[in-house]
Design goal:
The chain has 196 residues and is of the alpha/beta class. It has eight helices and eight strands.
Length: 196
């Protein structure tokens, strides 16, 4: 998963000081956050769960925003002095988030689809993308080069993946682990076939 994030950040062409809004602070969003900070970006972390935003703070995000709050648009305008963010990365969301996120992006900025958000069609204004010069891109699987870079980041501890592990369970607790993940009560669950 980290190598997929490495490829995505490489494709995003982030410059130091760029503002990035990451929607979804699951394990992917939290790895993306750390990679973007290594590139010198300022990151706004958005999630529906306060505990995930707390972890994002520990991992270096510049700003957090609880999805249940209202008027993210005004918050972004204040952060960016009215400009808008340079990039929105969608690691979670729905049709509405895709549509709303266009308004958070500065003219000439980018929208990155980094999750399969919906099987339903998402209406987008092609005219708005065109006139505002919004770049739309996705990223999915890594290259061998990205795998090597991810390995190097892990070996040199430049990305904290241990913080993403919320539970260590025994093999007989596998069902419990799955239930916790499905209920958003766990981030990453490690199953130990032998006693912990």
């Amino acid at each position: 998963p980290l190598s997929c994030c490495v490829k995505n950040v490489r494709r995003a062409k982030i410059l130091p000081g760029d503002w990035v809004c990451i929607v979804g602070m699951g394990s992917i969003g939290l790895m993306m956050l750390q990679l973007l900070k290594l590139e010198g970006a300022k990151v706004l972390a958005l999630d529906l769960l306060e505990e995930r935003l707390e972890l994002a703070k520990k991992l270096g995000t510049d700003e957090v925003y609880l999805g249940k709050q209202v008027n993210l648009q005004k918050h972004i305008e204040k952060l960016t002095e009215g400009r808008g963010v340079d990039l929105v990365v969608l690691t979670a969301g729905n049709q509405k988030i895709v549509q709303d996120s266009i308004n958070w992006i500065r003219d000439g900025g980018s929208l990155n689809l980094f999750a399969s958000l919906s099987d339903e069609p998402v209406p987008l204004s092609i005219d708005q993308l065109y006139h505002r010069e919004i770049n739309l891109f996705s990223s999915y699987s890594p290259s061998p080069e990205d795998l090597i870079k991810a390995y190097d980041l892990l070996i040199h501890k430049k990305v904290n993946v241990q913080a993403l592990i919320t539970h260590h369970l025994k093999l007989e607790e596998l069902t419990l682990g799955i239930q916790k993940i499905n209920a958003s009560e766990a981030m990453k669950v490690i199953i130990h076939p032998h006693d912990i």
